[in-house]
Amino acid sequence: MLGTDSTGRGGIASVVTLLQEEGFLDQQNVKYITSHREGTHFKKLAIMFSATGKVLWYCMFAKPAIVHVHSASGASFIRKSIFLAVARLFRCQTVFHLHGGRFPHFASEESGVLLKWWIRRTLERSSTVIALSESWAAFLSTCAPAAAIQIVPNSVRLAKISSKQRGEAGRILFLGHVGKGKGIFELLKALSLLKDSLPYIRLVVCGDGCLDSVQKMADELGIASNVEFRGWVDASQKAEELARASVFVLPSHDEGLPMAMLEAMAAERAIIVTPVGGIPEVIRDRENGLLVPPRDADALAQALKEVLENPLLRQMLAENALRTIESRFSTPVILGQLSLLYERLRGGSRGEVVAFIK
User: Domain of 21?
Assistant: First the structure.
């Protein structure tokens, strides 16, 4: 499996780590090679050129049965589409696996005529295109009507939180890239609307991004004492923060199927999210989470107030969220789907699978 550094940040790195730690790569005879790592432009180029050489070598001599590409939008798509084109030259089965909430915007608005043609060609010439949700599958079918699309959601481990760890009163967790697209500024505005009626309220922000702008806004809104900035957190720190939170909030403007949301559900936390991307296919309002319109700080504040002041509602949402993960998104369920896909594409052979991720 060739892709982003599994010790890095972001949803794709989380997916890769899970595949490694669950033994899926060993079971499926997958070769993993790092093709992307955070650092200087020179370091990124060096990693990319090294990966390109290895792609050519594997396709020429190792003859992988499948080349599996996990791609985001922009430059990530360009790189991975070239890898897939090389794989097809050597008659490999190919899988295009889409991640990243901005792909619809990239494909529809940012791309010119030539790039739109290349996107369609890449999707339609892939043996299988994996979408994370039904809504993404529908969008991809408009981009590439002849593409063979299969829905395989992200998977997540079930967290191990004792019954005594029910979350600290008023503690809200934001987990993700700290930027406009994740709705962090609306979340700060919502917090400012609640600080007088709920003086104990506390927002914990975990992630990297435009932290200076967010801290400045918190100061301007007079809620600096109600906000903690933890920066990027590793797996153990993330588990601790989920255990301490009363509610998880991700008011994104666009999404695919966010790993952070699934992890919060697996940790049996009540969640407040927006009905964008694949989220409304997972979350039923007032059943296993609360849905609020994106970019609406007033609605977000109302939802926060309700769930923080109503422990029975909070418990019900959390328990149903965990049941949703157990039945639809647990690791055994999703890895079983991937295994069946690999077996179908292999046609019964046991050759190597090489996957290029982000």
Answer: 2-155+331-357
With tokens 């328990």, the residue in question is 319
Inter-residue contact 189 to 295 (CB < 8 Å): no
Same domain, 111 and 250: no
Task: Assign residue 182 the CATH number of its domain.
Answer: 3.40.50.2000
Question: What's the pLDDT tens digit per position in 321-345?
Answer: 999 999 898 888 889 999 999 999 9
Does residue 133 sit in the same domain as residue 261?
no
pTM confidence score: 0.79
Write the pLDDT tens digit of every residue in 115-133: 999 999 999 999 999 998 8
For residue 47, which amino acid is it?
I
List, in sequence order, every residue forming a beta bridge with 45; answer none if it has no partner: none
- Burial annotation 33-54 (CB, 10 A radius, 16+ → b, else e): bbbbeeeeeeeeeebeeebbeb
- Digit-coded pLDDT (tens) for 64-75: 999 998 888 888
Q: Are 129 and 149 in contact (CB under 8 A)?
A: yes
What is the spatial distance between Cα 40 and Cα 250, in angstroms, rounded to a whole number?
30
